[in-house]
Write a structure and sequence with these properties.
By secondary structure, the chain is mostly beta strands. The protein contains one helix and eight strands. The longest helix has 9 residues.
């Protein structure tokens, strides 16, 4: 039997060549963030810190008009009555029984959005006047014409 000389040593170019088993699943604990779910960077009423909630509740009440709101996406924007940039509105911060629609007059308080606290978010949003001539939907799905 003839023995052939070993091939020249070269650096590995693939994971399997260095002894890593690429076919075996990694052992990890189950996580709710698995798959395509991306955590929202926006603070909802549920994830907002207690101190941010207290600061917002002690702040002044502003007036504005609902610019747009998408129930399926869970957010929208408010145009402030005193002008300025539009304010973000999350579904968890809407008080009352109606889903806001374009043209509704609202009152709200403001809270900064982390991590840089450069932008503002409307909290404790209350619809004060329903936009005339529009159909409003309650959170339970009942449609009311105004």
């Amino acid at each position: 039997m003839s023995s052939e000389p070993p091939p020249p040593s070269q650096p590995p170019t693939h994971q399997s060549s260095v002894g890593l088993d690429t076919q075996r699943a990694r052992d990890r604990s189950p996580s709710p963030l698995r798959g395509n779910v991306v955590p929202s960077p926006l603070p909802t009423r549920r994830t907002r810190t207690f101190s941010a909630t207290v600061r917002a509740s002690q702040g002044p009440i502003y007036k504005g008009v609902c610019k747009c709101f998408c129930r399926s996406k869970g957010h929208g924007f408010i145009t402030p009555a005193d002008g300025g940039p539009d304010i973000f509105l999350h579904i968890s911060d809407v008080e009352g029984e109606y889903v806001p629609v374009e043209g509704d007059e609202v009152t709200y308080k403001m809270c900064s959005i982390p991590p840089k606290n450069e932008k503002l978010q409307a909290v404790e949003v209350v619809i004060t006047h329903l936009a005339p001539g529009t159909k409003h939907e309650t959170w339970s799905g009942h449609v009311v014409s105004s």
